[in-house]
Amino acid sequence: MKKVPLFVRIMAIILLLCGLPLIFGGGYLISLSGSWYYLLAGIVLLISSVLLFKGRRSGVGLFFVLYVASVLWTLYESGSDYWGWVPRLSVLTVLGFLLSLAIPSLNGGRKKGLSRGLTGLFVVIFIAAFGMAFVPFHTYRSSAPPPDSPLASQDNPPAVSQPDSDWTYYGRDTHATRFSPLSQINPGNVGQLKRVWTYRTGDLPQPGQVNKWAAENTPIKVGDAVYVCSARNNIIKLDAATGKQIWKHDSGVKYESIPYTAACKSLTWYTSHVVPEGQACHNRLIVGTLDERLIAVDAQTGESCQQFGDHGQTNLLTGLGHTVPGFVAVTAPVPIVDGVIIVNHEVLDGQRRWAPSGVIRGYDAETGKFKWAWDVNNPGVHSEPTGDHYYSRGTPNSWAAMTGDDKLGLVYVPTGNSAADYYSALRSPNENRVSSAIVALDVKTGDEKWVFQTVHKDVWDYDIGSQPTLFDFPGANGQSIPAMIVPTKRGQTFILNRATGQPLSKTEEKPAPAGVIPGDPRSPTQPWSVDMPRLGMKPLTEAKMWGISLFDQLACRIKFRQANYVGEFTPPSVTKPWIEYPGYNGGSDWGSVAYDPQTGLLIANWNNTPMYDQLVSRKEADKQGLVSIDSPAYKPGGGGAEGNGAMADTPYGINVSPFFAPLTKMLCNEPPYGMITAINMHTQKVLWQHPLGSAEKNGPFGLPTELPINIGTPNNGGPIITAGGLTFVAATTDDKIRAYDSNTGKEVWSDTLPAGGQATPMTYSVGGRQYLVIMAGGHHFMGTRVGDYVIAYALN
């Protein structure tokens, strides 16, 4: 009997180990009405392994037949889509290379030429495939926007002017454009940007504390100072040229008050009309805190403004009724419109139906005293509750940055859905009417002026996280219409008349899937923005399931078939999981968009990340230990925002997770997972688009690959645009900040940050020098390194 070389038998065992999971998994996939490929491939690998173990040359030949068939199958399912080829052929290519080395051993030392040829072929295939990973995919470019469009802003200045050198508001101006007229840094010299100062806030989790940090701060700059808000609302004044600390105000927020995230997106600057210039608190900084206070400090000294509220602070818990630390919190900057501070707050997701109210309130900017409330279920009552009364509970909350219009006297409130996000049977008609919408309120009275809803009866957590951006839209007879841009998690971008709420771009109601939960029907239609380009991908299919190898792709295909999925608005289900796509972090989130009013260019970075959800019975929720944060039995990690939740007071709890492969923890849909898109608003067409974020800090099993492959990563944080022709954005999970040529989309500069850059950058000038600043604070949910860095760049 012929002796079989050891290497050949090792290869036979490897083929066996590869074939068995494909046989068992592939058979199960077929039982779910899935693809037959995996079972057939597994059978071929099993037969090939047996033949090889016996020293038969036909084992190698049979494998190569499988390889050719797999190439044809890949072409059929994925066409020329590079990422579709990776899982289907990666393992088989490695096996083919190894088997080609075994050919001489099976032929008595003969056919070395064939062996070398096949070995060389697989090396070429591997090198070509590896090299193609560095080629930009999914890139689209069209012509640059015309500079003389009617959208240009020569006659459309921001509602409140400021020096070009400043960045006075969270969105740079009152229109939240995130556009700076500075042009010293441009595509020609941006490569010379260097770090010129770094400041550390010192606000970090301490030993024994669960990491909830995600500072998300965009500093503001007024005059010669930069003002920073740390993750727990500490306010810091820095010298704009050197980054040296001038003063620091400790806001006294305790760890226990952190909700889902320790975040302070920005501060609000206010110049008093009552306090004379030169006196304390003529210029002041105002912030809403994680523990529900409204704080005002003097911009010059950092001391509390004694004439504001109770010695510098107003209690925002008044009227909310029963709550506990961490249940409600202010994380967004509070806008001031016509002398009124408008306050919203997040209510921790997933807790209970009768959670604290999502009430919106107005306070006097001079005194901090209550002026009005907008309580969804008591729309005609604007007073502050007293005694045992409180605002109506469980109503839609608003946690995103609001935008105001001083001229119209309106504030635009992006709302979420009612408490118990994934079950709507207990919601009132008023709650259903104003959830996941833009609501315009009169800043003097709190009266509701108009509502535009982006999702009807939302049970997908599609709350509006983006700050609306204001601009002027060309109307008839050369007259401009006051308008706004409303980005959404669905990737739908709506253009509205901000005076009336009427759509200015074509919007249609399209049929949506029916519900499957008894007593909780879904809306028969949902709104779609037809004219504006979609910030999203095509619906998922089994063929679009992904993985690093055949094995995790097979696992993802099985998960896909195990779940309900009928496209967008797949209804929640309890008998098996459902796929939510776009996910609640899909499309545009709190980073919002940037808009250049001089050219009509809109820049948006966005996510392509599905979720895998399932309603569970109350008994199962109890078994999983899911209780509300205000329950005596609650323990940290017991369920809540962006994860499994109790949804107490309803028949169901909720299990929520990203649509991951079971072992590798890679997303099951094909890359890219994050994108950046430029839209020419003159034509409402895509100017350029490509993946945002590399695989350097990402990879299977949570391990960084250190490869600069532009795979496109999930991102949180927004872009800014400058008159210098640059777009700056961080946000990605590879810890980088980047600069793009705004006209072409070409990446022209980047730097690796010491922590995650989940924040929106800003730019300003002082002493004739332009600076770029980013908060590198990391983000616990995004899995990036936590930090407390404020980093400034300038030309070398």
List the helices and strands and how they pair.
Blueprint: H1 6-31, H2 37-53, H3 58-78, H4 82-106, H5 112-132, E1 140-141, E2 179-180, E3 193-200, E4 220-222, E5 225-229, E6 235-239, E7 245-249, E8 268-271, E9 283-288, E10 293-298, E11 313-315, E12 328-329, E13 336-337, E14 340-343, E15 346-347, E16 360-364, E17 370-374, E18 403-405, E19 410-414, H6 429-434, E20 437-442, E21 448-453, E22 469-474, E23 480-487, E24 493-497, E25 507-511, E26 525-529, H7 550-562, E27 578-580, E28 593-596, E29 601-607, E30 611-617, H8 618-623, E31 652-658, E32 674-680, E33 685-691, E34 720-722, E35 726-729, E36 736-741, E37 747-752, E38 762-766, E39 769-776, E40 789-795
Parallel strand pairs: 2-34
Antiparallel strand pairs: 1-33, 3-40, 4-5, 5-6, 6-7, 8-9, 9-10, 10-11, 12-15, 13-14, 14-16, 16-17, 18-19, 19-20, 20-21, 22-23, 23-24, 25-26, 27-30, 28-29, 29-32, 30-31, 32-33, 34-35, 35-36, 36-37, 38-39, 39-40
Helix pairs in contact: 1-2, 1-4, 1-7, 2-3, 3-4, 4-5, 4-7
Count of beta strands: 40
Major sheet strand order: 1-33-32-29-28
Shape call: globular
Please summarize the sheet with the most strands: 5 strands, antiparallel
Low-confidence stretches: 143-155
Strand content: 25-35%
Q: Mind telling me the C-alpha Rg? A: 28 Å
Distance between the termini: 75 Å
> Treating each run of at least 4 consecutive H or I residues as one helix, how many helices?
8
* Alpha-beta classification: alpha+beta
Fraction of residues in helices?
A: 10-25%
The chain-level mean pLDDT equals 92
